[in-house]
DNA sequence: GTTGAGCGTT
């Protein structure tokens, strides 16, 4: 009973998958199984992990045998605090076997069972800031919109850009980045145009970027640890 | 050792 997700998809013929989000990174399938199994027949529980690190991605898939039970678990476990974190349970949609909640039972929609009032009845409007379709978020958890600057070198970089930033060391670095892709046969290699550029490159001052005497000293140590006697 | 919107594998 602990081999969930290890034997692959057992049988997705008539099962309904639920997507559990907002779970802790330490929560495992075994921890969710007894929790979801209490509300219905869980046939499988799978938690996608990172192939690089192997850590949980923060969400799991619980496969139920019946939709009514799955729906029940969604209303019961949705918003429940697990491991100190509020989890969100909902039907999977983009899954391989995206269950169609609109099966034959969907005709019941005319039924007066419109009492969708959750047991909790709590306001879940402010559950998170993803009210919008902010799905553009990169899969990588490091996709923070706040790109860390170059230690405060951003301002100077802008100033330098007007002078000769292109001639820095970014051009030659990209040259050997395409071993497979060769230049167009028609296009002549820029080998010839690299000569004049080298002249300007010499004009740049590697230590000129340091404005404050104190900052220069710190920078010096980083590049030349053996330059202690420099000061 | 951290993180936090989302949609899945042997």
UniProtKB/TrEMBL annotation:
Compositionally biased tracts (Basic residues): 110-119
UniProt biased composition (Basic and acidic residues): 120-134, 146-161, 216-231
Gene Ontology biological-process annotations: mRNA processing; RNA splicing
GO cellular component term, pick one: nucleus
Listed Low complexity bias regions: 165-193
InterPro entries referenced in this protein's UniProt entry, alphabetically: Nucleotide-bd_a/b_plait_sf, RBD_domain_sf, RNA-bind/splicing_reg, RRM_dom, RRM_euk-type
Source species of the chain: Coffea arabica
Sorted UniProt keywords: mRNA processing, mRNA splicing, Nucleus, Phosphoprotein, RNA-binding
Compartment list: Nucleus
Stated name of the protein: Uncharacterized protein isoform X1
Keyword Magnesium: no
Annotated RRM domain residues: 16-94
Region ranges (Disordered): 102-231
Entry coiled-coil feature ranges: none
Gene3D superfamilies assigned to the protein according to its UniProt record, in alphabetical order: 3.30.70.330
GO molecular function, one term: RNA binding
């Amino acid at each position: 009973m602990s081999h969930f997700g290890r034997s692959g998809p057992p049988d997705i013929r008539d099962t309904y998958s639920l997507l559990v989000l907002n779970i802790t990174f330490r929560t495992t399938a075994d921890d969710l199984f007894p929790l979801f199994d209490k509300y219905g027949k869980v046939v499988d529980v799978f938690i996608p992990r990172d192939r690089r690190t192997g850590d949980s991605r923060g969400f799991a898939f619980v496969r139920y045998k019946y939709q009514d039970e799955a729906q029940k678990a969604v209303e019961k476990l949705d918003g429940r605090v697990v491991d100190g974190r509020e989890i969100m349970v909902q039907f999977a949609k983009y899954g391989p076997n995206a269950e169609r909640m609109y099966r034959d039972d969907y005709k019941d929609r005319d039924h007066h069972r419109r009492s969708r009032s959750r047991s909790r009845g709590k306001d879940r409007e402010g559950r998170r800031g993803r009210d919008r379709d902010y799905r553009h978020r990169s899969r990588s958890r490091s996709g923070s919109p706040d790109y860390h600057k170059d230690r405060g070198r951003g301002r100077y970089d802008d100033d330098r850009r007007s002078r000769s930033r292109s001639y820095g060391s970014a051009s030659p670095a990209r040259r050997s980045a395409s071993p497979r892709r060769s230049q167009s046969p028609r296009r002549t290699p820029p080998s010839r145009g690299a000569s004049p550029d080298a002249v300007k490159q010499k004009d740049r001052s590697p230590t000129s970027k340091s404005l404050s005497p104190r900052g220069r000293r710190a920078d010096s140590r980083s590049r030349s640890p053996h330059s202690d006697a420099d000061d």
